[in-house]
Amino acid sequence: MIIGVPKETFPDERRVALVPTLVPALVKKGFEIWVEAGAGTEAGFPDESYQEKGAHVVSQRVELFGKADVILQVRGLGANPKQGHQDLKMMKPDQVIIGFLEPLGEPQAIRKLAAQEVIAFALELLPRITRAQSMDVLSSMATIAGYKAVLLAAETLPKMFPMMITAAGTISPARLYVVGAGVAGLQAIATARKLGAVVSAYDIRPAVKEEVESLGAKFVELALEDKDVATSGGYAKSMDESFYRRQRELMAKVVAESDVVITTAAVPGKKAPILITGEMVKKMSPGSVIVDLAAERGGNCELSRPGEIAVEGGVTILAPINITSTIPYHASQMYAKNISNFLQHITADGKLKLDEEDEIMRETRVTQNGEILHPQVRELAERTS
Ligand code: NAD
């Protein structure tokens, strides 16, 4: 089985789907690894480092797509809406495509993949079950995003994070508030605590209170009545506008008192809820910083401009997109480990091993035999066509 690793083509994408250290184990399992020249360069993995580990480096992308049985990508078509189209014509029936494909946001891209008769696996749809943890690219990338969000905030804030008692007086610690304590939020808490900030956090799912506290942060209790806030999969549910209004009212005080607010609140497949309004930003002290990690889903802050920096009343609002690509070495290392575990899960003896009973394969396989298999994606594709 030939595994092809093309160079990423999304603008400013610096990650690569496979790193050299994982090549020998895959070769031992009988895979041949083909890497497009320059694929790992931006992440710190030059072509020679792949060759030394037993991979072939090919200069022509068309050759890679022509020969590979399986393509490993970070951003496949849906997650790379413009440039991704150029790969479509190179794909061949029954070729396996694995990567982020943004199936819920870009269902028409999935339709195009179906038309090419490829077998596409969207890693965003991986079930959050224990068995799938070693393949969980969303968690890996969220970990990096949470870490980097704190670094961006520390760099932007005109204050230091730790408390310091010096001959020049006492410096009080920065107060940081994390909204949404999922994977990214918990990593942001841990990173900010290591830098010495005083951290508080809130999540709509009360179950995370213990995790927040175990990291040395205070869990902010908001008197929100609704108990039915999470799906059976552990994700937050989409709530109605009156719930979010009440949440904003209750959070206004803690936001106003914070030097840094990091928001990560997301609802899978939906636009991120607005939790910080322009009015709330106005009440923050000049110099304060908001890092909106939900920017790619529209943002949790009303004033966020995805991919840009906004300054309102002295408050800086950062809304980074593709933040994980700014730490390409470790982002690629983690992504590659996850995707290679996934590859080994769906193959046996050099062949694709499709098991309809297996939740991991069933949930992630979006197209095969010219059809969109995933019911939710199919319905979205029909509704938006
Ligand atoms: P996510 O990126 O979808 O959302 C981030 C966080 O925002 C979540 O914690 C969510 O509850 C929170 N949120 C949503 N709306 C909010 C609101 N109005 N106010 C405040 N917070 C709000 O989530 P995620 O980080 O991907 O994690 C989702 C779930 O998956 C969690 O239960 C996590 O523990 C679980 N998980 C399980 C596994 C596994 O078992 N393999 C792996 C990773 C995550």
What does this structure look like?
The structure is a single chain. 33% of the residues lie in helices and 18% in strands. It has 385 residues and is of the alpha/beta class. It folds into two domains: 2-125 and 328-373, NAD(P)-binding Rossmann-like Domain (Rossmann fold, 3-Layer(aba) Sandwich), CATH 3.40.50; 138-326, NAD(P)-binding Rossmann-like Domain (Rossmann fold, 3-Layer(aba) Sandwich). The protein has an eight-stranded mixed β-sheet with strand order 3-2-1-4-5-6-18-19, sandwiched between helices. Strand 2 (32-36), helix 2 and strand 3 form a beta-alpha-beta unit. The model has no long low-confidence stretch (mean pLDDT 95). Bound molecules: nicotinamide-adenine-dinucleotide. The site of nicotinamide-adenine-dinucleotide (NAD) has 31 residues, from helix 6 and helix 7.
Distance between the termini: 35 Å
Q: Low-confidence segments, ≥5 residues, pLDDT <50?
A: none
Mean pLDDT over the full residue set: 95
Q: For this structure, what is the CATH class of the largest domain?
A: Alpha Beta
Question: How many strands appear in the DSSP assignment?
Answer: 19
CATH topology-level name of the largest domain: Rossmann fold
